[in-house]
Amino acid sequence: xxxxxxxxxxxxxxxxxxxxxxxxxxxxxxxxxxxxxxxxxxxxxxxxxxxxxxxxxxxxxxxxxxxxxxxxxxxxxxxxxxxxxxxxxxxxxxxxxxxxxxxxxxxxxxxxxxxxxxxxxxxxxxxxxxxxxxxxxxxxxxxxxxxxxxxxxxxxxxxxxxxxxxxxxxxxxxxxxxxxxxxxxxxxxxxxxxxxxxxxxxxxxxxxxxxxxxxxxxxxxxxxxxxxxxxxxxxxxxxxxxxxxxxxxxxxxxxxxxxxxxxxxxxxxxxxxxxxxxxxxxxxxxxxxxxxxxxxxxxxxxxxxxxxxxxxxxxxxxxxxxxxxxxxxxxxxxxxxxxxxx
Length: 342
Ligand SMILES: [Zn+2]
Prior knowledge:
By secondary structure, this protein is α/β, with parallel strands linked by helices. It is 44% helix and 15% strand. The longest helix has 25 residues, at 259-283. Residues 65, 67, 113, 115-116, 214, 252-253 line the site of zinc ion. Residues 1-45 form the signal peptide. Belongs to the metallo-beta-lactamase superfamily. Class-B beta-lactamase family.
């Protein structure tokens, strides 16, 4: 699927890589993004008929992977996008909900990952239940992903700070459905498999904003460990058109940024990781053999330099790429080659 990309697109990609590869530009763009984040309410003072929504961002701790939740406030009430992970992540969010004096009219879960849905159960206990919206596939996967975290044994490290039972979304929304909550009209996007097995997004056209969960990651290394890198590249190509008119994207990790920059950066990251894993497979065509450690290290060296300006969810960058991204990507690309050879 990667090789299906045309030549002009590749040339553009190389330009994008050159651009994003420049550290000074990257730093400047991060500063710009930070500045934009500070003036966000002024930037989207757009809708003529009603008051512009206020958007507040809440970030979980480094130990719970620096995930974002967004509280969107209209004159009628509050809409929350995602729910953080640990009980100790929640006090600022709970405080803001209570301080607003407005009802929480609905919550949208962007994708079935623990760092985004884990905090919903304790949140609802603290502020009261609200309708929980998600796409069908995300709703189907929440309980399963929660159980897998226990089966794999890593979530137990958080002890009582992680509430054991996950809240399953009770309101299913479909692709391109208009979801009206608290007087705001959101357009739902079901983006399919990308960073997670399913990724949904909310577009708020009146304010030229989008909330995309982990479909787009800002100044963070893209996670391809679930083996969806080829589908992600295709989804990123479509996303440019789907986000037409959107000026600012609120991602699942990292700061607010314009969509073109995020899409270009995320595409470049995934291409770079695929190029490295392709080299490993070329050198080790037998799927039963592990790629040579020296080759893996050389790949990690190159990617570490390339992603030096990106955050890695509290893990050392090499550990994140080697232990979380490479295994899923290797399996995915070996399967692609096997399918292509039949
Ligand atoms: Zn996440």
